Amino acid sequence: MLNNILVAIGITLMYSTPLALAGQGSVISEVSGVVNIGIEGMMTIGAFFGTFVGQRTGNPWLGFLCGGLAGAVFGLVHAFASVTCKADQTVTGIAMNLVGPGLALFLCRLFYDGATQSQPVDHKIPTLFPSGMLHGAAKNLNVSWTTIIALLIAVGMWYVFYHTTWGLHIRAVGEHPAAADTLGINVYKVRYLSVIASGFLAGLGGASMTLGVVSQFSPTAISGQGFIAIAAIIFGKWTPHGGYLACLLFGFFTALTVLFGGSVIPVEIISMLPYVATIIILILFVGRASAPKANGVPYEKGSR
Amino acid sequence: MESKGRKFLKNPFVLTVIAIILGFLVAMVVLAAAGFPPLKSVGILIKSMVGKPKDIAAVVVKSTPIIFTGLGVAFAIKTGLFNIGAEGQYMMGCVAAVAAGAVLDLPAPLEILAVILAAVLASALYGGIVGVLKAKIGIHEVITSIMLNWIALYFNNWFTNTRLYHKPATIGTYPIHESAYTMVLYHWKKSEAGRAVLKSNDFLKQVLGRNDINMGFAVAVIAAIFVTWLLTRTKKGFELRSVGSNIDAARYTGINVSKNIIDSMMISGALCGLGAAFYITGQSPHLLNTLSATENVGFNGLSVAFIAQSSPIGCIFAGLLFGGLLYGGASLQSQVGAPTEIINIVIGVIVFLVALSVIIPQFLDKHVRKAAPKTETVGTDKKKGAGDAK
């Protein structure tokens, strides 16, 4: 029994980590007032560059960082489109979702002799304790360092959002950019940095999948996690802590499907559980979600 | 007075064409950087899309489902909703089409009608769930749509493996009955006389013999015209658009907002369902397979709608472009060795640039001096310039 519970916790943490990282990316962008539906594409490009650098250099940490940076470059492009050019953010986000995986697979085929899978990395990002140090059921709690990083980032984001001037600026810019502008906050700068950070975190999320959970890049390594992260953030009412908990919950339902898979109920039906449960919880407990007021609205200097 | 050049650059159609050309240019840069001959590659891509009658016919067939999902998404955008659930609605339509077509065995016209009706109903209801949850409980349509997309994927896999439908020793279901096929002249093609004609006429052989040319494309064109008419010429369309543009104003004038949100999602879903119906009835293999990931027919519809800037008629052309690139991308890989994923980069760049192109008219008004009018308009221009500077 205890063993089962620990297994469930272990799987929950493992599956929720990429979601949690990407989810924090979604939060910071949306709270600053820029819809970022391109999280999925940014995760995929982060997953590829993370694996590629990790595999070629043999250093998973360097790969992890490069995954984040690749996502940040996409974030910069999205920021340019949505802040400077005031383009429709949903549309440019979808463009990110086409270019991200397209470029990732294109490069993968170039560097890995036409295969859509990369070679596996020699070293994954290490787990909390060296293997062999823990025994018995406790082994299940030997999570990857990426899981700890995701938790720290969520706590850090919460602190920044609610206890620092920077966080106040980000929230102000997303709620009422004109008022923020009057107070001398540079709306464009805050939004640019938020969206770039969003891409960086999404890239880390993608790399955490291919360097922490599995050990290679493949076309299905990132398949929908970005969208689920966005959904989790809406579920968490656009807050870092709410979003993190929603990602954990989603990871927990995924863990349940792993644990109960192959029993009396067909595996396909069990696999629906995380998605059905999310909808039911939304119906029962959440109700009307209130997005940041200026979310998705480009800011034109001088407008009210 | 606007100069000709300025007017030309403000035309959304012209801007879209420029975006498409730039999309190809970016692809050429990427290909060149990767060591493939850029001009030759694009030449092969275009030639394999429109080179032979067979290719054009194949492109039309390939495009039909994404034109429908594009129409569905465009319709939703016009009414203020973002239907990212087109993917799931399309999949449920496919499931319903096979559910009806593999079991029912009616004479041809009735069978076709039954299959189409089943697909359209299933997709409309699936879209309706999103509408009800948004209108009655206030759950964001994007979150429910994403969840329903995944549920549809697993539902498809569960359905494919049910005892009634699963064809042993395959990963798929039994195909639907032949009486539900919507290919043009399907029976004639297989008859003695038909085969003789196809053998002697190369054009017909390429178009009809080598392809599943079906009625879907014609229906898609009719659907696009119908959607345009519904949105712009009817009271219902006016209500739907009112809810989309200003929900509070619409409520204040007595429009039933909830009902219109639900209706809009159902119509959007129904259009995706039509695409599913003509995919299952009009193209091989006429059955469902177990899927490891979504096939992106719905997601590609999003791109189609965006490139068309939500114009229903525009969706036909954007869909043909997208379908053509998907079809041509395959020969790019076989002939030049360039990865087919370059197609996704082309489409992504086009979508991105179309989104950016909306700023060009504003940019021209603000920053580029108007073609110096010499008479009384000078005064008003100056005034406008002063206003902008503020």
Describe this structure in words.
- The complex is a heterodimer of chains A (304) and B (390).
- With 304 residues, chain A is mainly α.
- Chain A has one domain: Orthogonal Bundle (ABC transporter involved in vitamin B12 uptake, BtuC), CATH 1.10.3470.10.
- In chain A, 69% of the residues lie in helices and 0% in strands.
- Chain A has twelve helices and no strands.
- In chain A, helix 1 runs antiparallel to helix 8 (187-213).
- The longest helix of chain A is centred in the N-terminal third of the chain and has 30 residues, at 2-31.
- The termini of chain A are far apart.
- The model of chain A has no long low-confidence stretch (mean pLDDT 90).
- By secondary structure, chain B is mostly helical.
- Chain B folds into two domains: 1-36 and 338-365, no CATH class; 50-330, ABC transporter involved in vitamin B12 uptake, BtuC (Orthogonal Bundle).
- Chain B has helices spanning 4-10, 12-33, 38-50, 53-78, 86-101, 108-137, 141-160, 186-190, 192-200, 202-209, 216-233, 235-245, 247-252, 257-282, 297-307, 312-336, 342-357, 359-367, 377-389.
- In chain B, helix 2 (12-33) runs antiparallel to helix 17 (342-357), helix 11 (216-233) crosses helix 12 (235-245) and helix 15 (297-307) crosses helix 16.
- The longest helix of chain B has 30 residues, at 108-137.
- Chain B is globular.
- The two termini of chain B are 24 Å apart.
- Mean pLDDT of chain B is 89; it is low at 374-390.
- Chains A and B meet through helix 4, helix 9, helix 11 and helix 12 of A and helix 7, helix 15 and helix 17 of B.
SS summary, helix count of chain A: 12
Question: Looking at this structure, what is the CATH superfamily of chain A?
Answer: ABC transporter involved in vitamin B12 uptake, BtuC
List segments of chain B where confidence is low: pLDDT < 50 over at least 5 consecutive residues: 374-390
CATH architecture of the largest domain in chain B: Orthogonal Bundle
Helix-strand pattern of chain A, N to C?
HHHHHHHHHHHH
- The CA-CA distance between the termini of chain B, in Å, is 24 Å
